Amino acid sequence: MKLTTAQPARHPHPTAKATALAYLIFDRPDLGEAERFLNDFGLQTVSRGEALLLLRGTDASHFCYVVRKAPKAQFVGFGLQVASRSELDALATLPGASEVEQSVLPGGGYVVRLKDPSGFRVDAIWGQAPASVLPHRLPLSFNSVDATVRINGTQRPPERAPEIIRLGHVVLELADYQQTCAWYTRHFGFIPSDVQVLPDGSPVVAFMRLDLGDRPADHHTLALAQGFVATYSHSAYELVDADAVGMGQRVLRDNGWNHAWGIGRHILGSQIFDYWQDPWGDKHEHYCDGDLFTSDEPTGIHAVSREAMAQWGPTMPRSFTKPRFTPASMVALFKNLRRSPDLTLSKLRTLAKLFA
Known about the structure:
Elements: E1 18-28, H1 31-41, E2 44-48, E3 52-56, E4 65-69, E5 74-82, H2 85-91, E6 101-102, E7 110-115, E8 121-126, E9 166-174, H3 177-188, E10 191-197, E11 203-209, E12 217-218, E13 222-226, E14 231-238, H4 242-254, E15 258-266, E16 272-277, E17 283-288, E18 292-293, E19 300-303, E20 310-312, H5 318-321, H6 327-339, H7 345-354
Parallel strand pairs: 1-4, 5-8, 9-13, 10-19, 14-17
Antiparallel strand pairs: 1-5, 2-3, 3-4, 6-7, 7-8, 9-14, 10-11, 11-13, 12-18, 15-16, 15-20, 16-17
């Protein structure tokens, strides 16, 4: 495959190295409806006031999902933990960054607020105290043809919302794809695990992992995709096993929520997945069994297509990547076509054809 455009690449000397995806921030007009979906999805409520809703998984994080009361439903941004106070101080010197401030959210610590080139808020966090781990069921034992581990026993997973262990990753669509990819590799040390490209070699999706050295990291914690406006694509939450993914589908379907895609297994990342829409149409993914890479694994380059998204299960539906056309998004489209070097009519036509 001939590559005609530079691919996203790791930076040799990043400002900081993110160590975890800490939380997501959403604005919602109805905190009660947001909580109802998220509880059915498997997140546990930490606190709910008139203006703020916090939810968590079972791992040692005080919260991983922030919902602010606001007239307009939108994705605001996310928090990234960094390894040291010196890295936090360095991030505070970037253009547009806040000063280092004490966090008022559970767990405390210190935070620097930034905006990436696409306008998403990024909180850099250091010094947050760990929370107590909550109990969750163990993975179910599995009888294979080569290893029989369950004799005179049955499989009876609990019929309830699955226990979310942790927030795994977030995926964003961008008009300024190359600039935003470079910002995250330059300032937070993200490593492109796999990049998907158009037939001419132009990159359009980057799956990026944390640089944890010899400690294995998720195949991707952040994924960035070429779009015509900056928008949220989806976020993903780890469950204990495939039965939990299946039970999540049953519970969410029985409770009347809208299914988006699944169940299947991804090619890049290998996760067993299932996607659901919240009351505002934003996609949330249950997953288990994802790939783990150390920092020395090289970047892979792959052709992009609907069929390249899953090893098995239903092919990605056209509705999954269908843009939301609004008067505001159409204005942004024409504006971005004029100013963004990454966005052309030819590229948009190619993407539309590939995902039609």
